[in-house]
Every structure is written in structure tokens, then in C-alpha cells.
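Appendix B, example 12.
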Amino acid sequence: MRPMFLAIALCLGLLWTSILAPAAEPLPLHAVKPLQALIVDGQNNHGCWPKTTPMMKQYLEDTGLFTVDVVTHAPKGEDPDFKPDFKNYAVVVSNFGHGAAPWPAETRAAFEEYVKGGGGFVAVHAADNSFPDWPAYNEMIGLGGWGGRNEKSGPYVYYTDDGKLVRDTAAGAGGSHGPQTEFAIIVRDTAHPVTKGVPATWMHAKDELYDSLRGPAEHMQVLATAYCPKTKRHEPMIMTIDYGKGRVFHTPMGHETYSMECVGFINTLQRGAEWAATGKVSVPVAADFPTADKASSRISGK
């Protein structure tokens, strides 16, 4: 009888332990299955786009969080076959640029529904030059330039030297930049998941410093800026925008391959894409992140 008594006691003990034990924390979705990302490209006034798309693809895949597909628009004119299945992706990254032909009406409607319904979107550099006549797109990116954008498009948005955020409705064209150079990025929101833990000031590698962008700027948060000697204003360099249930990460940085080799660009792109896809950031701040005094780059292919 003693062995049977011990067996019963053991079973009861295991049952009681399982009842009292706290439930295991569920794994994040991307810990079980990689996040699906899509890069769209094909028309960009920057001739380097066939090189920068693979760079961004690699940066996202390097996190271990993403698998990345690329869909390329026809090189010239409108493309009736450009119909990515956006709903299959957690985040869409645009590497389009100035002068890009309008997407088919069906594709525009599908993209609006995708982002508004909770999809993630990342706009990189000249993607904010694209589609000036597409109202929903301008709402998604918050601010844009060129393509005839002006005071009718929305205000200029910038910080003053004393840290005041300004929405300037003065008349004028949207979009400009000076000579390419290194410039300092100043983090304005240290609590946002994308910029939390990032150095308060860091040097960005040689790039175009976009200034005088303008647009609806609704539901937009400026996370970081750069001082523009031309405008004497602190211009937005990292922004997030809420569009319906969707999250948009917008960076005007990334003009050339050497600009995208900046560790600051790489790491904020990774973190911004994860935030756009999930609302959270698990990608750590890079150990070789730029400092206030020195830019840091990872040379592609080396």
C-alpha cells in the first residue's frame, strides 16, 4: 500500500503546483514568427535606389525580426500591374522618390485601408517627395517637399533655438536642402520607444539636410531634429505619425549609400520599422552608435 500512497501524493503535489504556478508570459509574435516586411521601389530621382533597397533589406533582416520582400514598380510612367498585397505585411517601407508616377487607384485605396487598419509604414528620404496630389499619403507622412507643395499643403514644422515647436503657416514652397555634409541630430523625445536610450545628440554621416518640409502634420510627433544653417531652424529628422490605427515612421535622412551607412540611420531605421510594425521596440541601441562628436558608419559589403 505504501508505494500506491506515495504515487497518489506525488500526483496531488504536481497538480497543486501547476495550479499555483503563474502563467508563462506569451512570447512576442515575432519571437514565434518573423515579421513580414515589404520594400516598394522602382521610381526615384536618386539613382542609387537599386543599391539602397538591398541595404535597407539587409539592415532589417540583420535584426532577426524581419523577413523582407521587395516589389518594384515599372521604371517609367504608371504601372497598372503594381498591386502589392499589403495586408500580408506588418510594415511597408517606401524607397520611392520625387516625380514618381501615381499608383493605380486600386493600389492607393488598398494602401490607405492597410495603414488605416493598423499596418505599419516607413517613409525614407525622398519618399516624402512623392505623390503630392495624394491627400491620404500626405497625411501619412506628415510633412513632405517638392512636387508643388506649398502653404496649401500645410504648415512648416520646426523647433526654435529655445526649444519651441512651431507650426508656421507662412506662404512658401515646401522642400529644400543645402550642400551635403555631416550634421548633428538632437533627440527631442527621449521617452519614445524609437529614441529611448539613443544619445541625446549624435553626428549623422554626410547627407542632405532636408528643410522647409510642409504638410498636414496631424497626429505627428517630432522625435529628433537637425539645425539647418540656411533656415536657421531645427528641422525634423525623425517623426512618427498616427494614421487611423496605423503607425508611420518617417525619416528624411538617407540620400546616398554613404548616408545609409551611418549607424545612426541604420539603428533608427531598424527600431522605427519594428515600432511601425508592432508599437514596441526590442532592437537595442547599437554599441557603435554615433556620439555627439563623431559619426559612425558601417561600410556596405565589408
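The chain has one domain: 28-278. Residues 1-31 have pLDDT under 50 and may be disordered.
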